[in-house]
Amino acid sequence: MTETLLRHRPYWRWSMGVQLARLPATMAPLAFTVLTTATTGSYRLGGVMMAVFVVAELAGSVPAGRLLDRIGPSRGLVLFLLCAAAGLGALAFAASADAPPAVLLALVVLPGLIAGGLSGGFRSLLAGTVTGPLLPRAVSVDAMLIDAVIIGGPLLVALLAGFGAVLPIAAMAAVFAVSALLVPRREAPVPVTGARLPLPIRAAVPWLACQFTIGHLLSTVEVAPFALAQRLGGAEGAAALIITVLSGASIVGGALYAWRGVHLTVAPRTQAITLLGGFIAGGCTVALDLGWPGLLTGVVLIGFCTGPLVTVASVQMQGLLPEGRRSEGFSLSFVVQASGFGLGSLTVGVLPLWLAPVFGVASAVLACAILGKGPARVVGTLPATS
Length: 386
Known about the structure:
Blueprint: H1 2-6, H2 9-40, H3 44-71, H4 73-96, H5 101-129, H6 134-161, H7 167-181, H8 201-222, H9 225-231, H10 236-259, H11 268-287, H12 291-320, H13 326-350, H14 356-373
Helix pairs in contact: 2-3, 2-5, 2-6, 2-7, 3-4, 3-5, 3-13, 4-5, 4-7, 5-13, 6-10, 6-12, 8-11, 8-12, 8-13, 8-14, 9-10, 10-12, 11-12, 11-14
């Protein structure tokens, strides 16, 4: 079945499109900082621009997903991506023309509002691109590729910044435009009914809790690598080691789940609770000052369980969501995970270093409790493959 996915051309077209759509968001923090440092002499405006972008992204995510469901994900994504490209192109032009900071901040809003709905829109199209036994494997591979995008975005900005401070912004616009060319043209089937089916929020709570936990606990490691390294007397390069180990473990965990995990006949809730147990163990180990072996062990546990947990939660969410509201539902899932990431980042900033991971562990424990007491009903069990 691995060969079947490798030869699944519609999936790889979808994958190239969604990775390119994600790339500008990973480029944005460094790109905005490079831009404002060059144009105003201060990096602070870049930080404010990123904050505005994130707030707009979260505020626009669910409404954008709802709009995509109404006009059709394929057609809507092309329109959204081209509008985002135009918005970033306007930002690059304004920065080149020495526009005031207020103008730069205003021009960030449109791409942010649009970016929030892209993830849900692309994920809804995956349901019509890959079906049956290949779906869990496709989601696992996608989770692996996200790590590459997260790493590649800042590296691309650093490379382009040497040729001009505005060039990374222009590249973000170009990436959105290319992504529009790769949007799958086949729409997911939408039921023809007089009334729209409601989102099954209550049934989705266990899987949304998993998404929240992923964002919450991951952020405590991704936002605090310097502090974790300094606690152990490590230099600045040690922070890069922590992030590298986390990303590497995530890729390995996703790869193993794509290869063998989809064969499991264990109930999805049981799988999720087991993976959350890995989060709990990893978070507790990171919280304790056990030296480098303890820290790296905890980071590996968290990273290793991330990809499989993303896959289980995503496949179960797809089974629950009405076909005509999948973009909105997956956009809601994105907001929940991003909210967890924001809370984890906040705890790192205001709490003692050892206590921040404990809050992430608490989220994992709560998610386990929700999964454990939920109904036995299973929607779309992870299909076995052969």
